[in-house]
Specification:
Layout lengths: L10 E5 L3 E7 L2 H8 L5 E6 L18 H18 E11 L8 H9 L4 E9 L1 E4 L14 E4 L14 E8 L13 E2 L4 H5 L7 E2 L4 E3 L8 H4 L9 H10 L7 E3 L6 H9 L3 E5 L2 H15 L26
Parallel strand pairs: 2-13, 3-4, 3-12, 5-11, 12-13
Antiparallel strand pairs: 1-2, 4-8, 5-8, 6-7, 9-10
Helix pairs in contact: 1-2, 2-3, 6-7, 7-8
Amino acid sequence: MADPKGDRPFARLPLPRRAEIVLWNEDCLEGLARRLAPGSVDVIATSPPYNLGIRYGRYRDRLPRAEYLGWIRAFVLQVDRVLSNRGSFFLNVGSPPRDPWFAWDVAREVGQRFALQNVVHWIKSIAIDRRFTSRTSGVERDLALGHYKPVGSERFLHSAQEYVFHFSRSGDVPLDRLAIGVAYQDPSNIARWHRPREAMRCRGSTWFLPYPTIQRRARDRPHPATFPPELPEWCVRLHGVRRTRRWIDPFVGIGASAVAAARLGIPFVGFDIDPEYLAVARDRARRALAGPRSIDDRSPRRARPARPPSLRRDG
């Protein structure tokens, strides 16, 4: 538990090679300024509150639009300070049906300081008609996959996707696309596209990642707005495990990113203002550390991550 002065983190969990997961019970605007040196972060993968009036434990999620966007600008200033020159900033934002421009308004604010390099569509629910699949797919009937929240309106479709905006400083950061690649469904395409390596191709800009099924929300997902650990894990893999000295989630919540950090074994820093959420994040990360690691060792390019830079110690 963090002390009243904020001089100690909420939790420190050791990783291999003298690395660690560090969780701070602190507002991220203050924490980024106090805890991290300029240019010391290679990947930021996060999802801020969406200003939808969601009932968080310690945060008021309903601000006037101009005030909220001003808060986003203040956050982006700190991101600009800590992100390395060849770093990646992955920002997960969704839009409510009644306000479809919201996510893009947030992206435009970030775009004042960063280049928008990729736009990923995180697909949470999808329906696939059997007649549109290939003969080699093995699909024998129509499929409806994933989970969604029904919209009680005759005007709107239910929301089955969110955005992950990939920002970088100049829009030219190289990516390890095959680290989250998929196998060619038709083997003839391997030679056709001149991509023989491991018979893999780029996954593209649509990522189907459903939430895991839970039995009791209060116990299994005690947070009103979460994402599966695979989402930040894929972001870090895409940027490149070997090139990631440290990554952070300024709105860590109940710790999906901390779980991904435990699986990948990469130094990680997370911030949240709610100690109850952080307690869940700490416990989830501990359980993940006791499980199997996720580092992909198929290629020497995905060897151990670089040793992290030092944390700032002026807190």
